[in-house]
Amino acid sequence: MEIQFAGEHLLPGKLGQFFIILSFGTALLSAVSYYFATIKDTRDDSWKRIARFSTRLNLAAVVGVGVCLFYIIYNHLFEYHYAWAHSSRSLPVYYIVSCFWEGQEGSFWLWMFWQGVLANILIRKAKSWENSVMTIVMLSQVFLGSMLLGVEILGSRIGSSPFILLRNAVEGPIFSRPDYLTMIQDGNGLNPLLQNYWMVIHPPTLFLGFASMIVPFAYAIAGLWEKRYKEWPSTALPWALFAVMILGGGVIMGSFWAYEALNFGGFWAWDPVENASIIPWLTLIAAVHVILAYKSSGHSYFTATFLVLISFVLVLYASFLTRSGILGETSVHAFTDLGMFGQLVIYLVFFTLLAVVLLAVRWKELPITQKDEETYSREFWLFIGALILTVSCIQVIATTSIPVFNAAFGTKVAPPTDVIQHYNKWQVPFAVVVALISGFSQFLKYRNTDARRFYKALGVSILAAAVVTAGFVLLTGVYTNLMYIVLTFAAIFSIVCNAQILAEALKGKWKLAGSSVAHIGFALLLAGALVAAAKNKVVSVNSSGVIPVADFAKADKPGDNLMLYQNEPVRMEGFTITYLSDTTIGPNTFYKINYKQQEAGTGKIKEEFNLYPNAQQNPKMGLVASPDTKHYFTYDIYTHITAAPQLAQPGPEAMSHGDAGDEGHAADENYDKPSVHEVSAGDTVPISNGYILVKGMNRSATIAKIPLAKGDVAVALQLEVVSGGKSYPAEPLFLIKGGNKFDFAKVLENPALKLRFSNIYPQKNKLELMVYERPPAPKKWVVMKAIRFPYINLFWGGTIIMVAGLLLSIFRRSKEIKTV
Amino acid sequence: MKKSSIIGIVIIAIAIGVIISTYADSSTYGSFAEAKVSKTDLHIVGQLNKQKELVYNPQVDANYFAFYMRDKKGTECRVVFSGSKPQDFERSEEIVLTGKMVGDEFHASKILMKCPSKYNKDKVEVQAVPATASLNR
After folding, report:
1. β-pairing, B65-71 with B76-81?
2. Total domain count for chain B?
3. Is the reported ipTM for this assembly greater than 0.90?
4. Among all residues of chain B, which has the CA nearest to that of A426?
C-alpha cells in the first residue's frame, strides 16, 4: 500500500522534473532541426525556425530548473535530497547560491545554463554559421541535459536529478513512517569551506569558461563539415579569446579562494582538480596563437584545428576526471561517483570520435601548406610556443591521469610523493621557454624579418632585462636557485619586449595593445607566482616551548605550528604575536591575534595590526579553519588556526556530546572542597589570590519572595573579597524559618568563589563561613600557523592585467571579422 | 627534411621524456610490511583504528600528532605526523599516507583523508522531536 507522507511539498519537484525533461527534449529537437537546416538545401527556413524556437525554449526550461531548485533550497524543503544534503536552516541567504554548486547536479545545471545563454547569443551573432555551429552546441546541450534526467531506461539510470526525494535517495527505517519529515529537522549544511564570497562567484566564472569552449570547437567542426576550411579560424578567434579570458580568470579566482579561505597555505597545489581546469586552458591558449599564425601566414592550419578540437575534448576529459570519482585516492576535492561514470565516458568518446572522423574524412582537402616556415618569422615561433604549451599540458595530463591508467590497466601506481616538486621540475622550464618566446617574437614580423635589425632589438632588450633581473633578484632574494633566476629573467625579458610594443601602441598603433598587455600580465603572474612560491616562509616556527616527553619522539625539523596561550606574547621572525581574545559570531569563532613589529634597538612599535582567523567548530566536520591575511604592497602575512580547544557551545549538539566545558550542570562540581572557618567581625580569611575581610552582620536582611514570619531570623554576613588588588562586596545569607536553618550562598564569578554563611554559634559568638574556590579555568590557547608570502600581489595583479589584455584582443579580433 | 618535422621529433622526444619522468617520480601503494623493507617514501592506504588513542597535545607539542592505522592487509602500525591534527580526522573513512618507516613507527609527510561527511552524506540523522515541532515546518 502507498503511504501518504505528511508535510511534503511535491509540486516544485514535479515542476522541476518537468523542466528537466523539457530542456532535454528541446535540446534534442534543436540539434536535430539545426542538423537538417544545415544539410537540406530548402528555400524556406522552416527547420531553422523550429530550431531557434526550441533553443529559446531550452534556455527557458533550464532557467525553470534553476528556479525550482532555488525554491526548494531557499524554503528548506528537506524532503528533497539535494536541499537536505547541501543546505541547512542556519545558512545565510547569500550562500544559498553556493549550495547549488556543492553538488554535481547543480554544477551541471550551471554549465547547461551558460551553454544555453551562449547558444542564444549565437543565434543572433553567428549569421551564416548558425545552422552548423548550433548543431554542435545543441548536441553538447543534449548530453548535459541527459546528466540531470534521473530516469531509468532499460534498468540503468540515466543522469542524476536534483529533484529526487530524500526517501527515494536514502534508505532508512524512518521512511516507512508517514510523518518522517517531522524527524528531519535540518539539512546536512553547506561545507563551511564553501561559505565564502569567492565561492559565490568562482564557479559561475569557471563554468562560463568551460561552456564557452564549445563555441570554437563548434566552429572548427562546422568549418570541416561545410568545407569552409579557411573561414572558420578567424571567426572562432574572438570566441577562443573569450574562453581563454574567462576560464583563466575563473581558475585564478579559484586560486584566490584557496588562498583566502582554505588552509593549505598557498595559492596553487597542483591538486588534480586544479590541474583538470588548466589542461584545456593550456591547449586553447596555444590554439589562439596558431590561429593567429594561420591567419597571417597560412601556416600551421592543422595544428590550429587540432588544438581547438582537443581543447574541448579536454574539457570533457577534465569533467570526467573530477566527476566520475576516479580521482578518489589522489584528491580531496573531487566529487564522488554519482553513477554517471559511463555517461561521462560516452560524452567524451562521442565528441572525440566526431572530431577524429571528420578530420580523417576531410584530411585531403585541408589547406595544409607544404612550405617550410622561415626561422626569422613570427609564425614559426608562434608555432613553437604553441607546441611548448602543448607539451606542458601533456605533462600535467600524464601525472594527473595516473588513477585513470590504474583503472584502465589494473596497475597500482601511486602519484609522486612530492607532487609540487615533480610538477615544478617540468613546468618551470616550460614557463621559461614560453616567456622567452612571448618576448622576442614581438620583434619578428610575419613571413620574414631582417636578421640584423632583429638582433639589434633583441640585444638591447636582453641587456635591459638583465639589469632589471639583477635588481629584482636581489630585492626578492630568489638568487638561491639558478632556475629561479632564469625564470625571473625570462619573465622580465618578456615584460621589457612587450613594453616596447605597448609604447608603440600608445603612440597610435592601438591594435597592438591587447597582446602586449596580456603578455605583460602573464609575465608578471609568472614572476609573482615564482617569488611567492619560492620565498614564502613559515614564520610561526616553533623553536621553543616544546617539552620533551618520553613518549614523544621529537620530529626532525621544528614544526610549523605555534602554540599560543591567551595574553602570552610569543616572538617569531621579528613579530611579537599575542592571542588576545575570541568572539563567536554565528557558527564561526574569530580569534583575535595581535601582531607587533618593534624596532630592533629602541623597542618602539613600528607596526601593529590584528588578524582574525576563524575556525568553525562544525558538529559534522570538526574544526574547519579559515585564514586571515594582512595584505601589504610587497608581501602578505597569512595566519590560520590549526587547532583550538573545543568550545562549550550552547545548543543541542554540544550538550549531547557532553563536553567537559558544559557550564550549566557541572558548575557545582567544579569547586574545590570547601574550607570552613569560624569567624567574627574584623577577621580575615585567606584565599588563593587574596583574602576575605569579615566586616560585620546585617541583622535586618530581607530575602526576596520569602516573607519573614514572627520568630524567623534572616542575617546577612557582610564580606569584602579582596583579590588581585580589587575588592568585591558579598553578602551571603542565613535564615531560620519555622525552626529550620537555610542558607543562601553568594556566588562570585571573578574571582570564582562561592561563599556560604552556614551557621551561627551564639555561645562562641562565632559565625560559620564556608569558602568554595574554583580552580582558575585552564588557560585558553590556540595553535596557529603563519606564512609570509612575498610579492604575491604581482600574481594577482598580473592576472588582472592579462585579463584586460585579452579583453582588448577580443575587441580587435571581433572587429576584423566580416561575417556574412 | 622539413624544419617542422625535426621540431616535431624533438617535441615527441620531450613528451616521451615527460611521461618516463612521471613514472620515474611515481611512487607505489604499499603496506606497512613493505615500508619496513623499502628505503624510499611510499603511499599506504588504510583505515584509522578508532579504538586506539589519537595523540595530539598542542600544549606539549603543537607539531606532534600520532595515531594507529590499519593498512589494507590488516597490519596495524603507529603513525607519526609532524604537524597538527587534520580537521575532522576522527571521522575519516579512509586515509592515504605518504612517508616512510622510522624504526617501528611510520613517519608520514602527508595525510590525505576521505571523509564521508564532505561529499557523500547518505546517512540520515534522526532526531526525536515532539510532534508539535511539525507545526514549524
Report:
1. antiparallel
2. 1
3. no
4. B18
CA–CA gap between residue A350 and residue A713 (Å, rounded): 95
Q: Per-residue pLDDT tens for A531-571? A: 998 888 888 776 544 433 333 334 445 567 888 888 888 88
Can you read off the three cell numbers belonging to residue A224?
A: 570541416
A220: distance to nearest CA of chain B, Å?
Answer: 23
Contact between A414 and B42 under an 8 Å Cβ cutoff? The reply is yes
Q: How far apart are CA B99 and CA A572, in angstroms?
A: 29
Indicate yes or no: CB of A182 within 8 angstroms of CB of B137.
Answer: yes
Give the Å distances, CA to CA, from A240 to A11, A135, A285: 41, 18, 8
- Angstrom distance (rounded) from CA A185 to CA A163: 19
CATH code of the domain in which B96 resides: 2.40.50.140
The verdict on a CB contact (< 8 Å) between B62 and A183 is no
Contact: A559, B63; criterion CB under 8 Å: yes
* % of chain A with per-residue pLDDT over 70: 92
Residues A279 and B129: their CA atoms lie apart, in Å, by 50
Cell numbers that stand for A597 in this block = 613589529
Decide: A291 and A237 in contact? Cβ < 8 Å. Answer: yes
Q: What SS3 string covers A308-372?
A: HHHHHHHHHHHHHHHHCCCCCCCCCCCCCCCCCHHHHHHHHHHHHHHHHHHHHHHHHHCCCCCCC
pLDDT band at A658 (very low <50, low <70, confident <90, very high): very low
Count of Cβ atoms closer than 10 Å to residue A244 Cβ: 28
Interhelix angle A214-225/A197-212, rounded to 10 degrees, is 10
Q: Which of chain A's residues have a Cβ under 8 Å away from the Cβ of B26?
A: 399, 402, 413-416
Measured in degrees and rounded to the nearest 5, phi and psi for residue A527 equal: -60, -45
CA atoms within 13 Å, Cβ hemisphere of B108: 29
Q: Do the domain assignments include residue B87?
A: yes
A140-171 confidence digits (pLDDT tens)? 999 999 999 988 887 788 888 999 898 888 77
Q: How many residues does chain A have?
A: 820
Q: pTM to 2 decimals?
A: 0.83
Residue B69 lies in a domain: yes
For A101, phi then psi, to 5°, come to -105, 15
Spatial separation of the C-alpha atoms in residues A690 and A723, rounded to whole Å: 4
Q: B105-114 and B76-81: which strand pairing?
A: parallel
In chain B, helix, strand, coil percent, each to 5?
30, 30, 35
- Which residue range is the domain that position B58 belongs to? 27-120
CA distance A253 to A672: 55
Residue A256 φ then ψ, to 5°: -70, -40
d(CA A238, CA A244): 10
Tell me whether residue B20 is in a domain: no
Distance CA A369, CA B4 (A): 12
Q: What is the CA radius of gyration of chain A?
A: 35
Domain boundaries, chain A: 1-190, 667-773
Closest CA to A619 of A81, A97, A88, A80: A88
Query: Which chain A residue shows the shortest CA-CA distance from B109?
Result: A417
Indicate the Cα dihedral angle A79, A82, A85, A89, nearest 10°: -70
Joined grid coordinates for residue A496: 621589457
- Strand spans (E) along A155-290: 156-158
CB-nearest partner of B82 from A399, A412, A555: A555
Rounded to whole angstroms, the Cα distance separating A91 from A348 reads: 36
Are residues B9 and B71 in contact, defined by beta-carbon separation less than 8 angstroms?
Answer: no
Enumerate the β-bridge partners of residue B69. B48, B77
Cell numbers that stand for B61 in this block: 607539542
In the numeric block, the cell 554565528 is attached to A586
Residue B3 in domain? no
Quick one: DSSP state of residue A265? S
Query: Cα–Cα distance between A653 and A620 in angstroms, integer?
Result: 10
Count, residues in chain B: 137
- Using DSSP bridges, classify how beta strands A588-598 and A605-611 pair: parallel, antiparallel or unpaired: antiparallel
